[in-house]
Amino acid sequence: MTTSPEELKKNFTDQIENTDKQIKELNENLKKATEYKLKLEGGLETLRLLAGEGDQPPGEAAPPEPPVAPVADS
Question: Could you say which DSSP state residue 65 is in?
Answer without folding.
Answer: P
